[in-house]
Amino acid sequence: MSTARLWRENPSRYNLAASKCGVCGKVFFPPRNVCSTCHRKSIGKMEQLLLSGEGEVYSYSVVHEAPSQFEMLKPYVLAMVRMDEGVMLTSQLIDVDPKEVDIGMRVKTTLRKVGEDGPAGVIYYGYKFTPNP
Amino acid sequence: MQVGIVSYGAYVPHYRITPQEIGRVWGTDGELMSKNLLIFSKSVPSPDEDVITISVEAARAMMKRTKVDPRLIGALYVGSESHPYAVKPTGTIVCEAIRTSPNITVADYEFACKAGTAAIQTCMGLVGSGMVKYGVAIGADTSQGAPGDPLEYSASAGGAAYLIGSEEMIATLNHTFSYTTDTPDFWRREGQPYPSHGGRFTGEPAYFKHVQAAGKGLMNLAKTKPTDYAYAVFHQPNGKFPARVAKMLGFTDKQIEVGLLTPQIGNTYSGAVPLGLAAILDVAKPGERIFVVAYGSGAGADGFDITVTDNISNYDRKAAPSVKELLEKKRMIDYATYAKFRGKIRMQEGEVS
Ligand SMILES: [Zn+2]
Q1: What is the CATH number of the domain that holds A112?
Q2: Domain at B4-341: CATH code
Q3: What's the pTM value of the predicted model, to 2 decimals?
Q4: Is residue A69 part of a domain?
């Protein structure tokens, strides 16, 4: 992924900037300019919304064969999380023993390193999930 | 204009390793090391944590406790000796993450372990002169000692953030006093992964001389004596130095107890005094006075005379985790995991997909 594209996505990666349809109320993440249900009716009516960062585990898997940049973290948990606003986000679930993860577990987002373009390249930061006691 | 602390936030990574475990790997007496340094465990950052993520965690905790609009913050400084980038300020990412306005002055600071308190002093000046309404000062580090070096038993990770302003202060910053000389007790050259230190040179002519000079100067300036203070916090490279310097200056073990975190989390460098002060603010009551002296190798010391105000009673401390809660939320790891986490094993580098 290009540095420029990752940079444009910073508001969503750092602060969970989403969009909400002003007609039907549906929330989109990443944000969209047009609602997938209301189509043309939603044009000009999409509002920016910051997700609260809280949600619950919808599904998860434990990754043992990681891409090289996640080598140091394995085994790690990749979770699909239903946010309290209704949208689904997928990211790593960290600071947890894979054995302790459960469907329905409450989690919240935190900012972590999500990758880098090698030792001399840009470091990318984004949201990951941690248990929300 | 009276300037003070409007809000604060802290962060300590969850992982811990004991000196006994480090000693087991290097064939040294970890038990004795633990006793000599008075360190029972130290914090270890996860591979996806660095000074930027720690600063963001601390700054977000700080913002959760206050209703101050982040767009009113006019300055942000991050003090650290382990900024992830040599060129590209940590503060730029922190600003974006706490949603300040782009109309803000930002810089990264470096002065060994006292870069965070230098940032507080800068914010005091900017707020006091009316140049900015609010300033943010952060001290954070993810310091490393070379494998097998005595520093490996203490160098750890953590940080705290302070919102400095002149309204609804939970504590006033009454006075600050610094003492700085050219003393080569500890250094790291550009491009070197681990620091070097002057061995025995680190004690008397460095830490003790500077902390005492700043401490005495501060009490002269504030016209105070040790008994005026409910709490005192000193830079804590190990568990013993702060207790010794406290005694030299006339403070008791009881006064430094709450702010002394190194025995549990190790030396968090630029995070050390900011975290110790956060632990005190977690429990302090209106009217209580706090004595603070940070120390940075190279060498210098910054002292602060602080008074807790009535506002702390209505301040939403519970909106973010206390230092005590951060210390209790821990996971012990072995040396193999530690070496993997801290990049002490070299791997082929990957690409972002
Ligand atoms: Zn719609």
Answers
A1: 2.40.50.840
A2: 3.40.47.10
A3: 0.95
A4: yes
- Residue A118 in any domain: the answer is yes
Angle between helix axes B115-128 and B272-281 (nearest 10 degrees) is: 60
Q: Name the residue among B17, B14, B42, B15 with its Cα closest to residue B335.
A: B17
For B100-127, the pLDDT digits (tens) are 999 999 999 999 999 999 999 999 999 9
> Tens digits of per-residue pLDDT, A43-76?
999 999 999 999 999 999 999 887 777 777 788 9
- How far, in Å, is the centroid of ligand 1 from the Cα of B226? 65
* Set of chain A residues whose Cβ sits within 8 Å of the Cβ of B93: 14, 125
| Domain enclosing residue A72, as ranges | 52-131
Crossing angle of helices B30-37 and B19-26, rounded to 10°: 140
Residue B351 to residue A118, Cβ atoms within 8 A: yes
Report CA(A110)–ligand 1 centroid distance (Å). Answer: 29
* Contact residues, A window 69-108, toward B, CB-based 8 Å cutoff: 69-73, 92, 94-95
Is A34 a domain residue?
no
Query: Strands, DSSP E only, in chain B?
Result: 4-11, 15-17, 42-44, 73-79, 105-109, 134-142, 157-165, 171-183, 186-187, 196-197, 231-234, 289-296, 298-308, 331-332
Task: List chain B domain ranges.
Answer: 4-341
Decide if the complex's ipTM is over 0.90.
yes
Ligand 1 centre and the CA of A88: distance in Å?
A: 17
B93 touches chain A (CB under 8 A): yes
Structural domains in chain A (count): 1
Any domain includes A85: yes
Identify whether B235 is a catalytic site residue.
yes
Residue A2 structure tokens: 């290009």
Q: Angle at Cα A36 formed by Cα A31 and Cα A37, nearest 5°?
A: 135
